[in-house]
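Entry:
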Amino acid sequence: MVKMNEDIQLLNKQALIYSKDLEAMIEEMHRSIIGQDMVLEKIILALVADGHVLLEGMPGLAKTLMIKTLSDTIEASFKRIQFTPDLLPADIIGTRIYNQNTCQFSTKKGPIFAHFILADEINRAPPKVQSALLEAMQERQVTISEESHPLERPFLVMATQNPIETQGTYELPEAQVDRFLFKILLDYPTQKQEQEIMNMVAGVGLSKIKKVISSSRIIEIQDFNHRIYMDEKISKYITDIVMATRTPKQFGLDIENFIEYGASPRASINIALGGKASALLAGRGYVIPEDIKNIAPDVLRHRIILTYEALAEEMTTDKIISSILEKVPVP
């Protein structure tokens, strides 16, 4: 027991050091991004947990600016891919080119070969192009012709989509959506925040963002995130939440008519990693139930498939998640 306490104290000490690095990133990002505190925090958590983010919100809410600003705080490369209906897989991953002078083929790498990828309006590209991201997001490698090329760490894909436009869009398949650690919903800023945004952009303009952390430091933090202590009671709490999306009656929830398919085991893994990242950001070397509650909606939001009855009764995944978190006993 004494050894366990000593280990947690060491984890706490290291987590506190890393949390200051992450807070410096958030502070620097706020020089260009006004408001959206929770969204910026979740993006940082996704980076720490080494996962990808799907951002959904109306146009003009700084979705593109967020990932660009994040990459500007880190000594790392950034590429933006604007998804359009005429995009081809080779436009993302690259292709093999024949050189007539040397009579040899050479590999021309696509924009996916960067540390931070902005997949802007990802639902505008056809499924064949969307699937070109699958291998990169899951396996962290890209196959061009017969050659596989590993992607450098850190590697974060942040995709954006507009929730109201349906013309000329292709809904992301469940297999791809499941690759995203978080699905984050953006809302409008408050009137005061919007006034600040207007005065900043129309006045002095956006501030130049400084590099405050190295990519090697980010990798160090990502590796440390796995070492954050998680008690067995917290592990059971996570699996209880996920199981409640599959067998809600077992937990006294009358919502089974609203759920077509519950969350996959990847949800449990991502809640655990996200919970550890939440603890790390708070400067703790151990996970508490509040960490799980903090990130569970963002992990489960895109992993619960609703029935037609739920859609007819305007039942949303967020309402279902809220009822699950209220009902499942907290350790």
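The longest helix spans residues 2-29.
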